[in-house]
Amino acid sequence: MVRDVTFGQYFPAKSIIHKIDPRLKLLLLISFIVFIFVCGNAFSLALMGAFTVALVVMSRVPIRLFLKSIKAIIIVIILTSILNALYVDTGRVVFEVWIIKITTGGIARAAFMSSRILILILASSLLTYTTTPTALTDAIERLLKPLRFIGLGEAVHVMAMMITIALRFIPTLIEETDKIMSAQKARGADMDSGSLLHRVKALIPILIPLLISSVRRAYDLADAMECRCYTGGAGRKRMKQLHLVAHDYVSLLVCIICFAGVIGLNILF
Fold this sequence. Notes:
Elements (H helix, E strand, L loop, with lengths): L15 H4 L2 H17 L3 H18 L3 H10 L1 H14 L5 E5 L2 E4 H27 L2 H11 L9 H34 L9 H7 L1 H24 L18 H23 L1
Helix pairs in contact: 2-6, 2-7, 2-11, 3-6, 3-11, 5-6, 7-8, 8-10
């Protein structure tokens, strides 16, 4: 289960999605999420779904990585579908037992909400798979740069650095957790059977070494940054400068056309 967590991982590839400016990708993702919830019917949601699938194919990221992202929240998707199917009672009754009644309207609503969540996960995963943690946090720092006019310039840099470190060490901590679990299982620990309370207690021998390892890594990182005289903040130079180029403007135009199509389909249907 730990190996299925792919959040924060970057997959290097030569695709147009990887080359898009990270600032633009972040803004487009925010807009994309907004328009996913703007979709008011199946036609507009289908347009967003088709557009997302096209982006996934263009990214050249293995499909198995996206499937792992979906697998991590499959319980949420199933629970959302069941709740929508039970609480929406419009349309023709398909199944009814005691107080449980499922209608065609409930099934349609469940499929609509599940599709919305799937598109949301695919779009969010696409950002992390095609953008390095350094580029992503650099984009966040650039986008929040206007806050320096109200005295929060240093706070923005600190926050961006914290995000960089957190995203960088997520795959490392996942790998460390997997190693600790394998070591505990080799010693006879049972983590896959028994009651819920038993499984929670079985996590204690994992959490304690993981916490100690995380603290040790944090101290090592702090010592390394101090030895390199890292200060950050004002006067800090960047090796790679971010500039919008032709394919960024084309990507922006394509997304605007897609968003306009969503609004048009909402009006027509």
